[in-house]
Specification:
This protein is α+β, with helices and mostly antiparallel strands. The chain has a single domain (2-194), classed as HORMA domain (Cell Cycle, Spindle Assembly Checkpoint Protein, Chain A). The protein contains three helices and nine strands; from the N terminus they run E-H-E-E-H-E-E-H-E-E-E-E. A hairpin with a 2-residue loop joins strand 2 and strand 3. Helix 1 runs antiparallel to helix 2 and helix 1 runs parallel beside helix 3.
Length: 199
C-alpha cells in the first residue's frame, strides 16, 4: 500500500453522511476502473445493482481486502479534513511504467448542498457512467497492477504496511476531466491522465 503526503488546507468536516457518500463512490469507482480497464479478469467480479446501474465489485480476496482497508483509513482521514486527493494508478506489470493515473480531488464546501435520495442516485449514476464507459481511453493490452495513493497532511499516522512513494506520473500523457461527484459537503473532481500508444 502507498501513501503520498503533501500539504492541505481544509475545513474540518462534521457531516458523517457526506463522508459515507464519498467512500461509497470511491468503492464503486475503484472497482469500476479495475474491471473496465482490464486490470483483473471478468470472473474476478460480481454485478451489483446500484444507482440504476449494473456496477461491479471484486471477489478477489486480496484485492477486496486492500480496497476495504484503504477505504477504512480514508473515511477517518476525510472526516478529519486531512486528505486532498486519492489517486488510482495502473502500472505496466512488465516495465513498471504508469499507464493511467485516475485522480479524485477532494474539496470541502462551506455551505452544504441539499440532496434528496433521488438527487444522490442521479448524481452517482451520472458520474459512474463516465467511469464505466470511458470511450476516449485507448485499449490496454499489457498485464497491469494497480496502486492507491493517498495525498494527506504530513502529520497523519501512517498505518503499518503503507509507505511514501513517488507520484507515478504518466510520461507525455493525455489528460481528460470527467464529471465531478457532489456529496452533501464535498466535491470530488475526477480526471484521468493516460498513455496513448496509438499517437
Amino acid at each position: 500500500m502507498a501513501l503520498n503526503t503533501g500539504t492541505l488546507d481544509a475545513t474540518r468536516v462534521t457531516i458523517p453522511g457526506s463522508v459515507a457518500q464519498i467512500i461509497d463512490y470511491l468503492k464503486y469507482a475503484i472497482n469500476g476502473i479495475l474491471f473496465h480497464r482490464g486490470v483483473y479478469p471478468s470472473e474476478d467480479f460480481l454485478v451489483e445493482k446500484r444507482f440504476g446501474l449494473n456496477l461491479l465489485l471484486t471477489v478477489n480476496d486480496s484485492v477486496e481486502d486492500y480496497i476495504e482497508s484503504t477505504l477504512i483509513r480514508l473515511k477517518e482521514w476525510i472526516s478529519q479534513g486531512r486528505v486532498s486527493h486519492v489517486v488510482v494508478v495502473l502500472i505496466d506489470e512488465d516495465d513498471g511504467h504508469t499507464i493511467e493515473r485516475w485522480v479524485f480531488d477532494i474539496s470541502v464546501r462551506v455551505v452544504a448542498t441539499t440532496l434528496s435520495e433521488n438527487d444522490l442516485i442521479r448524481e452517482m449514476n451520472a458520474v459512474m457512467k463516465d467511469i464505466i464507459t470511458p470511450t476516449f481511453l485507448p485499449s490496454i493490452e499489457t498485464p497491469m497492477v494497480f496502486n492507491i495513493l493517498t495525498y494527506a497532511k504530513d502529520d497523519v499516522d501512517i498505518p503499518d504496511g503503507w509507505e511514501a512513494t513517488h507520484p507515478h506520473s504518466v510520461i507525455d500523457g493525455e489528460h481528460d476531466t470527467l464529471k465531478a461527484f457532489n456529496s452533501l459537503h464535498h466535491t470530488l473532481g475526477l480526471s484521468v491522465v493516460y498513455r496513448d500508444e496509438e499517437q
